[in-house]
């Protein structure tokens, strides 16, 4: 019973408009912007919590944190590209909508 509800909420309300908007951009731009924004959030979150000097040393100088820092941002960037690809794939074209209305 709730499967159809959640499918409508996540797929119908957010998937098609987000996919249509993201389909305007190239996939490498989406990947780059998603990765940079995640890295900025990580850096500023660490800087707010520990201070700027500690954030630089934790993220950029400590190799164990650097691997996690790059890996997580790459994973979220790939997820954003997958959302853009699937959303653009299932978004109907304007010509298809005109034919359905007639």
Can you tell me the residue ranges where pLDDT is under 50 for at least 5 consecutive residues?
none
* Main β sheet profile: none
Tell me the series of helices and strands, N- to C-terminal. HHHHH
| Number of separate strands | 0
Distance between the termini: 33 Å
Q: Tell me, what's the shape?
A: elongated
Structural class: mainly alpha
Number of distinct helices: 5
Strand residue content: under 5%
Helix fraction bin: over 70%
Q: What does the average pLDDT come to? A: 76
Radius of gyration: 19 Å
Explain this structure to me?
The protein has 102 residues and is mostly helical. The protein has a domain at 25-89. It contains 5 helices and no strands. The longest helix is centred in the C-terminal third of the chain and has 28 residues, at 63-90. The chain is elongated, with a radius of gyration of 19 Å. The mean pLDDT is 76.
Summary?
This protein is mostly helical. The protein has helices at residues 2-22, 27-50, 52-61, 63-90, 94-101.
Key features of this structure:
102 residues; mainly alpha; 89% helix
Which helices and strands appear, and what pairs or packs with what?
Blueprint: H1 2-22, H2 27-50, H3 52-61, H4 63-90, H5 94-101
Helix pairs in contact: 1-4, 2-3, 2-4, 3-4
């Amino acid at each position: 019973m709730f499967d159809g509800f959640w499918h409508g909420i996540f797929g119908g309300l957010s998937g098609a408009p987000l996919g249509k908007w993201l389909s305007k951009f190239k996939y490498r731009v989406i990947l780059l912007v998603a990765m940079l924004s995640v890295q900025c959030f990580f850096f500023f979150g660490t800087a707010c919590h520990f201070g700027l000097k500690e954030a630089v040393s934790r993220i950029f100088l400590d190799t164990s944190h650097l691997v996690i820092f790059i890996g997580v941002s790459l994973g979220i960037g790939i997820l954003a590209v997958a959302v853009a690809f699937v959303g653009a794939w299932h978004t109907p074209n304007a010509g298809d909508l005109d034919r359905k209305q007639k």
